Structures are given as structure tokens and as C-alpha cells.
Amino acid sequence: MKISTKGRYAIRLMLDIAQHSSGENVSLKDVSRRQDISLKYLEQIVNTLCKAGYLRSQRGAQGGYRMTKRPEEYTVGDILRVTEGGLAPVACLEEGSESCPREKGCPMIGFWSGLYQTINKYLDSTTIADLMNNSSDDNFCYYI
After folding, report:
1. Alpha-carbon distance 7 to 19, whole Å?
2. Alpha-helical regions (H) of 1-144
3. Taken in order 28, 30, 33, 36, is the CA torsion positive or negative?
4. Contact present, 14 and 69 (Cβ < 8 Å)
5. Burial class (CB in 10 A: 0-12, 13-18, 19+), 137
């Protein structure tokens, strides 16, 4: 499993909004500048997050984006599932996938299921608030 730039940037976007909101809307232009991410790309990502109900947008002079919940209520897993789709390490474990004809005798299904459970458990145990607490300043890790 490899997380795309869309997923990584979505986490950075949510983290940036959490760090800079203080109750007000956060301008996407400001996020773009701080995170060095194209405004056009952020617009695509923010659209996905708004549709999922994670962000709320407001137009106008005081416009921008804000979280619909507290940072403690967003897990990295939630954000990645919205932006990446499934996080299954193999196609046969993806939701809605056709049943594999070899599943009953597959010696690897237990291994892949265990890996998938471990991935989900880890991603769901880390919140945006946790990442905020690990951030030393406004220029947090660009490799997320």
C-alpha cells in the first residue's frame, strides 16, 4: 500500500487548518503558501473533504474553511479512507470486491487480513490533535 500525494496533502491540509483556525475560517491561499502545495490541487482535496463533511466552507471576505469537528475527532485513517478510497493491502480485501475463488484455500489470506487490521488500527489510533502535539512549529514535516 502506498499513500498518494492526495492523501498526504489532505492530512497536511487538515493539520494546517487545525493549527491556524482558532475559531475563524482559514484561507486556502494561506494553506497553499504555508504548505507549498498548489492551490488548484488543494481545491480538489478540499472539495472531497467538504463532501465527506470534514470541512465547512464559507465564501466572502471572511471566507475560508473550518473543521466541522474538533481535531481529536479526526483520525488519520478517516482522512485517508476519504481521499484514498480503501486502504486494503490486496484487492481481495477491499470493500465491495468480488469474492476470490481461491479464498477458502488461500494460505495468504490470514496474513493479508492481519496486515490490514494492523494498518487500520494504527491509522485509527492517530488523530489530527496527536499530530498537532508532535509538531514543533508552523513548518511541520513536509513528508507527511
Report:
1. 18
2. 5-20, 28-35, 39-51, 76-84, 109-124, 128-134
3. negative
4. no
5. exposed
Residues 6+ apart with CB under 8 A from 50: 56, 57, 65
136 residue type, one letter: S
For residue 28, count CB atoms less than 10 angstroms from its CB and return exposed for 0-12, middle for 13-18, buried for 19 or more: buried
Dihedral angle, C-alpha 119, 124, 128, 131, nearest 10 °: -50
- What does the pLDDT profile of the chain (144 residues) look like in tens digits? 789 999 999 999 999 999 998 878 999 999 999 999 999 999 999 999 999 999 999 888 888 999 999 999 999 999 999 999 889 898 888 887 777 777 778 899 889 999 999 999 999 999 999 999 986 555 445 445
136 Cβ contact list (under 8 Å, min separation 6): none
